[in-house]
Amino acid sequence: MNDIAARAKRIAKFIEPLRVEPGRKVRLPKDFDPRYKADLMTKKDGVELLRTGIGLLAEYQRRLAAEDTRGVLLCLQALDAGGKDGTIRHVMSGVNPQGVQVSGFKVPSAEELDHDYLWRYAKRLPGRGMIGIFNRSHYEEVLVVRVHPENLARQKLPAEAKGKGVWQRRYREINDWERHLTGNGFTVVKVFLNLSKEEQRRRFLRRIDVPERNWKFSAADVRERRSWDDYQKAFSEMLSHTSTPWAPWYVVPADRKWFARICAGAILAHTLIELDPQYPDVGEDARHELALSKKELEQETPEAGHD
Ligand code: ATP
Ligand code: MG
């Protein structure tokens, strides 16, 4: 087996326990342990695996861009202090910034509320050849909007779109949208950084105690924390209904930052490996032109002073 195939296999095996099988009923927090770290992996093994993942990502991103036919969308969801920013920073550290587009989603603007709820996400989708990362995503529409129904009230929906069954309807619409994207060349992969309540408490305290981290803290985060159980329920329902064969959810244990980063890198690398983008074959005519250009360049007299 060649080197890439061996690494690909190792990655596929590693992420398998994190994937939510379509149709599985998920109950958080009991179904996924935020402190899980595969086979008691040490941080040192982990760093090596992260390097493997990042190396593969860089190579596959070059291919994806050269092929210019398909795109990849990675959606990242987490509760506050879940580590989305750090994960993006580490996972994308080896790739060409021109091939990646990161979009964050905050409270919707008046203009955004004036459209259907998927509009603002559709506007930020990656183009062909690109990797798009959503730092928060259309899943906020079944998370924060569900936990705090006043958000739904602001969306100016007609009665039939906000009444009974609204969440089931949204799950279906989101699944359909992702299927449409997949069918047209855009692979969607979803990562939930699963943080424990205690680890969130510690991270908030650190943000308060360490002056350089103060800017990251907001009293609103502690207010959101009061809805912890409602969020766990909303996440459980979301995972149960929107992990599909074409766009699976992965639940990544997030209490150890280093482990979460390895997982996210491995999941993205796995997605690209499965896509297997290819450098285009330029064809006979283009090869002929290359040969002519080469001849012309070689016939020039080399300038002195260049080694
Ligand atoms: P940071 O890590 O910097 O805190 P963040 O993603 O938490 O990043 P914030 O500006 O703190 O950014 O928070 C954005 C807020 O916007 C979150 O509380 C999120 O739940 C909220 N939000 C996102 N999408 C929606 C939506 N569709 N409706 C209502 N609120 C939303
Ligand atoms: Mg925040």
Automatic annotation (TrEMBL):
PANTHER family: POLYPHOSPHATE:AMP PHOSPHOTRANSFERASE (PTHR34383:SF3), POLYPHOSPHATE:AMP PHOSPHOTRANSFERASE-RELATED (PTHR34383)
InterPro entries given in the database record: P-loop_NTPase (IPR027417), Polyphosphate_phosphotransfera (IPR016898), PPK2-rel_1 (IPR022300), PPK2-related (IPR022488)
GO terms for MF: polyphosphate kinase activity
Classification via Gene3D superfamilies: P-loop containing nucleotide triphosphate hydrolases (3.40.50.300)
Pfam families hit by this protein: PPK2
Protein name, per record: Polyphosphate kinase 2 family protein
UniProt keyword Manganese present: no
Organism: Amycolatopsis acidicola
GO biological-process terms attached to the record: polyphosphate metabolic process
Record keywords, A-Z: Kinase, Transferase
The Polyphosphate kinase-2-related domain, residue ranges: 54-271
